[in-house]
Amino acid sequence: MIYIGIDVSSKEFVVHAVNDKRKVLIKGGKITPDKKGLKKMLDGLGKEQKLVVMEAGNQMKWIALYLKGRSDVNLHVVHPNEIKWINQSSGKTDKIDARKMAELGRGNLLPRKVHVVEGHIRELRELLSAREKLLQKRVDLVNCAQGLMKQEGVRLPKGFFTPGNWEQMLSKLKVADTQKLILKSIMTSIDSLRASESDILVKVREIEDPRIELLESIPGIGELSSRVLLAALDEVQRFDNKKCVAKYGALTPRIYQSGSKTQLGRINNDGRQELRRVLLQCAHTIGRMSNNYAAKPLYDFFKRVEKKRNKKIAVVAVARKLLTTAYGVLKHGCFYEPSLLTLEVA
User: Fold this and answer.
1) 326 and 228 fall within a common domain
2) Domain of 307?
3) Which of 4, 58, 59, 73 has the fewest CB atoms within 10 Å, i.e. is most exposed?
4) pLDDT of residue 130
5) Residue 41: which of 102, 115, 105 has the closest Cα?
6) Residues 265 and 221 in one domain
7) Beta strands 2-7 and 13-19: pairing type?
8) Residue 29's beta-bridge partner residues?
9) 183 and 298: one domain?
10) What is the DSSP pairing of strand 73-78 with strand 253-258?
11) 336, 218 in Cβ contact below 8 A?
């Protein structure tokens, strides 16, 4: 077996390769960042089986698709957060990164591999990611517009950012023509971004999968949130248990342990942030579903946590419960059943 660590960048790939006998075959070699460069490097190492290790990044898709098409290559993609000791090393270089990944592979010390999705799930992830970026740009422009008016000592009227309202309200604002022109340009861009988001949402809703219906049977999980869940979780059998799923969704507390003392801290951010955001929104919905039979166990759980702790903690607790419930629904391939929920307040 040959173990290959690749540090990926837009200008070049840095490669380190070592075999079972610790013989270095490639030391900090640089190849062109394309299929030809990868093919030449892999062919040069012969027909022996190869384990390629790389970090997840913005070029992962095409690299993974190419390497999966080779019978002599096994691919192991790792999340950057799982190998922070490389990123935090005082002697960090591309060559060192590639060498450490190759040595981790040779020593069988690699962390859990990143799940590389394909087909309509890959399409769904890309659409949702694009929508998230457009949404963030729109929020940035809204903040920019509000900041501009604060400098003028003017508060924008309620409903100004509602589609179709701003032009009439803008004409009545008592600000200079320069500010009106800037605000008009910002609002035109916001409308354009909103239209692009709508186009993407139409495509997202067109994607069908039998598992979506299972997820939508859970209270608070709707047409969009079910697709966000499916895109993130996909093959749930890869998770060992529901605790692993909660960590994947960035809904587990940080743990500080020393000797006999264990302290739980704030919720960890290491996980899929889009999954966390949508589940927190769903949890807020659960807090308003007092008269819904299917949601009653979750609603009662929300109220118990809120009474014992506070509302913010209750929202996070319900978001985690929704995620683990979705995991159970997908794992067993069955619809949500409220009587099967076990809800305890720690």
Assistant:
1) yes
2) 210-340
3) 58
4) 96
5) 102
6) yes
7) antiparallel
8) 15
9) no
10) unpaired
11) yes
